[in-house]
Amino acid sequence: MPENQELPRLDVVGRPVAAPPGVVLVLHGGRSRSRESGERKRLTYARMLPFAWTLAAAGPTVYLLRYRYRGWNAPFKDPALDADWALGEIARRHAGVPVVLVGHSMGGRAALTAGGAPNVVAVCALAPWLDDSDPVEQLAGRTVLIAHGDRERYTDPAESYAYAVRAKHVTGRTARFELPGAGHYMLLRARAWQSLVRRFVLGSLGIEPEDPVITNALRQPAPGGLRTVVPVSPR
């Protein structure tokens, strides 16, 4: 039982569907170390709401996870433990329904770490905080998309590239996208971030046809498909 009896907790975004075609679990960012409660809705939580609302409007049931603590807190990896709990709870509520994980920063790390759960079919990590200690074996059989902006100041795009290279050996369906002009908080080029996530998630769940650009990146052997650029749309 968690130390905080109220957390972790799943917040439903939008109107829950009785028999959804899929479930999306959204994991927000945090800090390297912090035992502060995850009860308060901070900017890290609010940052993921546009993604959650966009996806919920398209058909799947969407949950935002409230962690017990703000921090990753290695070696405990608290958000990944909470994600494991959430995936078990989702399996209980929605037996047999496929799940896609979407995480940002620390949440991206938690999503990739927890991606081996039986009900997970795909993982989307946005500006993930990673290093060479992060495992990839759990991603076998999953579809993985990683995205990073080139104005990143808080997490290392080189680390997400190195992780994608390692993951590609475990699951051939791994792609990584680069967003020129985009930074860590996904405010710059917000529409491009949200469009990429929406197309990946809905294609992975079979709600919409797979996006050809994403599919092409997934099919390419490393290093192809791991530095696919999301172009800036002309105004």
From TrEMBL:
SUPFAM superfamilies: alpha/beta-Hydrolases. Residues 24-223 form the AB hydrolase-1 domain. It comes from the Bacteria. Pfam families: Abhydrolase_6. This is Lysophospholipase.
